[in-house]
Amino acid sequence: MTCPTCATLPLAPTYFCSQECFKAAWPTHKKIHKLGKQLKAAQEAKALDEAKGREVPEHLRLSLPDWATRYNFTGPLRPAQQSPTRIVPAHIPRPDYADDPQGRSESEIRDKSSGRNIKVYTGEELERVRHACKMGREVLDLGGRACRVGATCDEIDRVVHEAAVERGCYPSPLNYYNFPKSVCTSVNEVICHGIPDYYEIKDGDIVNIDVTTYVGGCHGDLNETFMVGNVDEEGRKLVKCAFECLQSALAACKPGTLYRDLGAKINKVAKSYNCSVVKTYCGHGIGDLFHTSPNVPHYAKNKAKGVMAPGHVFTVEPMINLGSWEDVTWDDNWTAVTADGSRSAQFEHTVVVTETGVEILTARDDEP
What we know:
Number of strands: 15
Helix content: 25-40%
Largest sheet: 4 strands, antiparallel
Radius of gyration: 22 Å
């Protein structure tokens, strides 16, 4: 007899004299399957790389990654293959994790271990954050224009990557703890951290595009959910709810506000729409680091520490679900989806607390 798993991998057949022989050899033999899977992934990546610059065959583009063939999905969305990681020109300054083999940010690790207080941005430092946020806004607007029926999430990644590079920015998600792309695209039941691939956007989809740009030593972070084509009533309700949740939280931002109090504001709006608030992921401090203090949870009765003060820079980014608030992560180790397969929507801004309220650093000029 032959090993049935080996037959699905680019490995030479392995023969066993009997079922008992196969069982006895299994503890040692199964180790070769890991090598076979790595070889298969490398061959698929090579095929995609060779296809770069010409039309990628649909059967290859839309085939499932190896991990997904055995995964129990919570909703109808399925991953597709990914294009090769895009390159940032060497002349563009990059964050410390950009060239780290594991994508680790040593500066963030030091910051977390030091337990430093929330940083206060003023003067020239604040202007650099403001510029990074302005660039992020421009890049997201271009990414949003690429979000249409028939476009792929990979095309959005290309547009965002090129727009960032044209502005002298490094796309912050790229290689952050080995994230392979320059933007996050989260479709339908994906809550956040969706990896752009060859998935073709369909009529009725909702697509969140999450952009962060790094320039002048600072990051600017924002996202929006786009309704593509004829979105049903429930989907439109969800997106409207997510937008109003963000607006209610921003209206409460001012000196003296407790960071933990934003969750109650957001939860009240979500509850009025019969939606739920994701608890696993939160807003965060940002500036010279991609993620730092404060933590900004979006759900009620959280235990976040800290009080807002002038010069604090952070994101608010409530993730709102049509069904349960609970989430699971795909086996790509990034894509967070709703546990019940319901759809999710999100909007995000980076803000700075002023003497009298808050300035939305990532706002578009005509935003309400």
